[in-house]
Design goal:
The chain is α+β, with helices and mostly antiparallel strands. The protein folds into two domains: 7-96; 100-170, Alpha-Beta Plaits (2-Layer Sandwich), CATH 3.30.70.120. The protein contains five helices and four strands; from the N terminus they run αααβαββαβ. The protein has helices spanning 10-40, 44-67, 72-96, 111-120, 149-159, and strands spanning 100-107, 125-132, 135-145, 164-170. Helix 1 (10-40) runs antiparallel to helix 2. The longest helix has 31 residues, at 10-40. The radius of gyration is 25 Å and the shape is elongated.
């Protein structure tokens, strides 16, 4: 016969179960964050897969909370896991850098050097002449994979450090099949 006294001990109830609840919440909130990002990017299959595992893990954590409603350590573990999971989900998402972004650059400087430099680095650049608050400006649009954003901004900064830029997430990137 197996000794199950540890499963009923105060150590198990006050340390092991709360720790498992904490880890479960970290996992499910991390998956929830990724699922929301997948949904916003139109990645239906990945969002459904993340949702499936998110809820299984959440049910495990919640069942242990309900099983011992008077254990404040479980509540603290649940809340702490939520906080750490939120942080972990955002951190993980920024590391995997799914999707594309459009970088808009506005400068009064001569655009040819920057355009040439970016094209030599493999970027496709669209340049539009525009008028800003103080007169003529050059506006550039560059679609870039998110994982290359910091490199792109470094390239821009190396040529025109005073350039103004904005970055926006894109839901979808593609070409239409018609003739140009």
């Amino acid at each position: 016969m197996v000794d199950t006294s540890f499963l009923h001990s105060s150590t198990f109830t006050l340390i092991v179960i709360p720790f498992l609840i904490f880890l479960s919440r970290v996992a499910d909130v991390t998956m929830e964050t990724l699922r929301i990002i997948f949904v916003s990017r139109g990645m239906r299959a990945l969002s459904a897969l993340a949702a499936f595992f998110e809820i299984i893990v959440w049910l495990f954590a919640l069942s242990h909370i309900i099983e011992d409603m008077g254990n404040l350590a479980n509540y603290a573990a649940y809340a702490g896991g939520f906080a750490v999971g939120s942080f972990a989900g955002v951190s993980l998402e920024s590391r995997i850098a799914i999707g594309h972004q459009v970088v808009r650059i506005i400068t009064r400087k001569d655009a040819r050097e920057l355009v040439g430099h970016l094209k030599s680095q493999g970027y496709t650049v669209t340049v539009i002449g525009a008028t800003g608050k103080k007169g003529p400006v050059n506006m550039f649009f560059i679609v870039s994979p998110r994982r290359r954003l910091e490199t792109l901004l470094g390239e821009i900064n190396s040529v025109i450090p005073s350039a103004f830029y904005t970055v926006e997430d894109l839901r979808r990137v593609g070409r239409l099949s018609g003739p140009d």
